[in-house]
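Minutes, project check-in
Item: structure for the 464-residue chain
Input as provided by the requester:
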Amino acid sequence: MNHLVVCGINYHSAPIAIRERFCIPDSCVGHALEGLKHFRHIKESAILSTCNRTEVYAVVDDVAAGLREIQAFFQSVQSVNDHAVLKPNFRLLRDDVVLHLMRVASGLDSMVLGEGQIMSQVKAAHQTALEKRTSGPVLDMIFKLALTCGKRVRSETTMGKRAVSVSSAAVELARETLGPLKDKNTTIIGMGKMGQICAKHLLSENGKPVIVLNRSAARIDAFLQNKLNNRERLTTGFDYSERAAIAAQSDLVIVASGSKNFVLTRDELAKQRHESSPAQVIIDISVPRAVDPTVAELPGVELFVADDLSKIVGRNLAEREALVCEAETIVFEMMESFHNWERSQLVVPTITGLREKIEAIRLEQIAKNSGTPGMESDFSSKGDMESISRAIVNQILHHPTVHLKATKDYEILRQQAEALRKLFNLDPIASAGNTTSTNPGGHSANSSTGDKHKNGRHGHLSKS
């Protein structure tokens, strides 16, 4: 019996100082999945690692053992010695896993509600798991449904129109702190996707030049190929090694770097700053953090990190709740699609096996009796025998087929399918479904992995 689980850490359960210790760079996710293959109880796996979360989605054949193996995996990929303190503290089981992933892909579980980048991150996590062959039928299905759900939320609701990225929230935080930015000297360090979005937001309004710095000049050149508003305000050509000196003279510095090391340190900035240096705001949206936290101790420097974006997140609560309600309707519609797929993992193989069994009996009896004296007199032709026997088989199979398809309760359906397989001596349902279970109530496994969940799910996903 297989079970669906998710285990990890996210912004709900841990601050950035902890999350950054668990962060797995994009370039390392494939290697990490290879490591998960070696655990005995993990049958399928996928890793979603972003600035807000590092979560392992898995199909396991034993919940307690599988969660222990995922915890061991998290310890093995960390270079820290305080494993007793740093443990994955977010766990969900069964249907809750599917519901969580759909909400994540829809931007409903993002620190900044509706932010758009998460869709591409979920898609990349799915693609990497497929490439490394760690995603089987269950994870493949839930990731596909989650991505479809995310697309629907963005296209069918106002969520997509109101979506806010972490980058745009950073710019908004800068405005709240500094006032209008048009008269501020601004520097962006790091021109990945988040840095580029920051630059576009800052260029959208008239003002002073925006300096962009990146370790690789090629990425800046690629960004310049885009159609940009007020492109003439974009200032490039500085050497990356000048970042501390340039940052020290800026009113606003936004850092969106993927570096494993600090790109701005206290000592570097202290050497470049002097009494005439402007009071400045530094916003580090990198995970792991790319600005030395002690920079905040320098006179005239105000440092913000990703978690400080909660100021933006907490705004317009009533309006956001209305948007969430609209989007959640789609999420639960997609959950029903998942439940239909789960039921099909039991119904289709059982009906197919039953029909094949009875068909084999029918053909065997026709073959045995085709040469029996007197049989020809009962049937005008062999065709009559075929059609009459086939009609009898269809009549026999009609009621159990209709009844199985109409059964909505997964546990009852599983019991009925198993009963039919035993009565007709059919093979057990193959791990072909290798399905999982989830509890629609959305209960966190933090309470106990042994909690009893009423509805067993997945053509082999257990809900017990």
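Outcome recorded: The longest strand covers residues 3-10.
No further action items on this chain.
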